[in-house]
Write a structure and sequence with these properties.
Blueprint lengths: L3 H32 L4 H32 L4
Length: 75
């Protein structure tokens, strides 16, 4: 009975072949997706998403600074 590694190696080779075979199609699909027009609703959602992420980052950094200051007795 063949070892398990033989089957895994064969499976990995097959997956790599499929990935190589479809890379041009996937790249073309990705290019088309980036070139499509964006609606106002999508743009608004992206803008608010970026704003939310920046606000969350500010809260986390401020919390870390307070924890650092408290740990070293600066406040």
């Amino acid at each position: 009975m063949p070892r398990r590694e033989v089957y895994q190696d064969l499976e990995n080779e097959i997956q790599e072949e499929f990935a190589h075979h479809h890379v041009e199609r996937d790249m073309a699909d990705a290019y088309r997706e980036t070139m499509r027009p964006i609606s106002a609703e999508e743009m608004r959602a992206k803008k608010y998403g970026v704003f939310f992420n920046l606000a969350a980052l500010l809260v986390v950094v401020t919390g870390l600074l307070f924890m650092f200051a408290a740990a070293f007795g600066l406040i």
